[in-house]
Design goal:
- This protein is α/β, with parallel strands linked by helices.
- The chain folds into two domains: about 15-60 and about 170-335, Rossmann fold (3-Layer(aba) Sandwich), CATH 3.40.50.1100; about 60-170, Rossmann fold (3-Layer(aba) Sandwich).
- The chain is built from twelve helices and ten strands.
- The strands form two sheets. A six-stranded mixed beta sheet has the order 1-2-10-7-8-9, sandwiched between helices.
- The longest helix is centred in the C-terminal third of the chain and has 19 residues, at about 230-250.
- The radius of gyration is 19 Å and the shape is globular.
């Protein structure tokens, strides 16, 4: 299960992880594919880790986290999952899928106005059986308070609800991406460690897990988080918070670092950026791989721009973590994508 590295810290980490409750939701490892044509045009060795192909509920990175979150829920007798996100939240959709797989009730408390028609992720969440609640007048802190109150109400009805934070950002969930690094290092054990992991930065727990994972399993690999929404200082702070919590859970010192770039957000969260639109079409037409406009296309636009600016070296071995989200494409129009 573990790549070949120094045993001293790994044995202790292995014991800590084995003690965590985990419930398998997906078949691992996910594919690791070389983007030959785009890589050649950029003059880098470009690999794409296909976490969009996990299968359950249209796939995505949150399933690695939900294996631990749902494992805890089942172990502790919860019968309902509550979580939050935007109207087109990938995390919400994947939570709905995980709940359906395990026979748990699911309530999604989504930030925004109730849509006239369900499309994309929110349509899939409804198909998966989630109960949808919309909060047009609240920020996420207020929605957290409302979910806690809702859990209390459910408890008076004899039910037990687990409130999952935005993006699945728990210490246990972050461990899912520590393990993802061990997984990819087994996949490329005969080809040399990557120079760089590139991932979209949303709530920060995926980047946190990757950075802790590189500390343990691939110390020469850097991590770049391309923000899809937050300013650099906010995202950096959240990544550090998630990293500290996971490091404490695993009983290790947090020595990791993440390169955060907030230059590619564009007009704002969930809004199509011109650079992201171009990156989406470029990868689709060069290698047949689809991205989403909210997260992965913006991350890919950052990767392309930083290579062209010389900030990522020629011939670098780069892994782009495809975190999923392609159902969001079905909410877009030809006008938005200029095609």
């Amino acid at each position: 299960m573990w790549p070949t590295v120094s045993r001293d810290p790994i044995d202790a980490v292995r014991a800590r992880i084995a003690a965590l409750k985990r419930h398998s939701l997906v078949s691992l490892p996910t594919p690791l594919e070389r983007a030959e044509r785009l890589g050649q045009s950029l003059r880098i060795d470009l690999l794409i880790k296909r976490d969009d192909l996990m299968g359950l509920g249209a796939g995505g990175n949150k399933l690695r986290k939900l294996e631990f979150i749902v494992g805890k829920a089942l172990d502790e007798g919860y019968d309902t999952l509550l979580t939050t996100g935007g109207i087109q939240s990938n995390h919400a959709r994947q939570t709905a899928a995980a709940a359906a797989r395990q026979g748990l009730a699911c309530e999604l408390h989504l930030r925004g106005r109730s849509p006239d028609n369900l499309t994309g992720n929110v349509l899939l969440s409804s198909i998966l059986g989630a109960e949808l609640h919309y909060h047009e007048d609240a920020d996420y802190a207020e929605i957290d308070r409302r979910m806690a109150a809702r859990a209390e109400i459910l408890s008076t009805q004899g039910r037990r609800a687990l409130v999952i934070p935005l993006g699945g950002g728990t210490a246990e969930g972050t461990v899912g991406y520590v393990l993802a690094v061990a997984e990819i290092m087994r996949q490329i054990s005969d080809g040399g460690a990557p120079d760089l992991f590139v991932v979209a930065g949303g709530t920060g727990s995926t980047a946190a897990g990757l950075s802790l994972g590189t500390q343990l399993f691939s110390p020469g690999t850097s991590v770049l988080a391309v923000s899809a929404s937050w300013k650099k200082d906010v995202l950096s702070g959240e990544i550090a918070r998630h990293r500290r919590a996971a490091a404490e859970l695993l009983g290790i010192e947090d020595k990791a670092a993440v390169w955060v770039d907030d230059s590619f957000v564009g007009p704002g969260y969930s809004q199509v950026s011109e650079a992201g639109r171009t990156a989406l079409l470029t990868l689709a037409r060069s290698d047949g791989i689809l991205l989403d406009t909210t997260y992965t296309a913006k991350a890919m636009s950052g990767l392309i721009a930083l290579v062209r600016a010389g900030r990522i070296a020629p011939d670098a071995k780069v892994v782009f973590w495809h975190t999923g989200g392609t159902p969001e494409l079905f909410t877009r129009t030809t006008y938005e994508l200029a095609i």
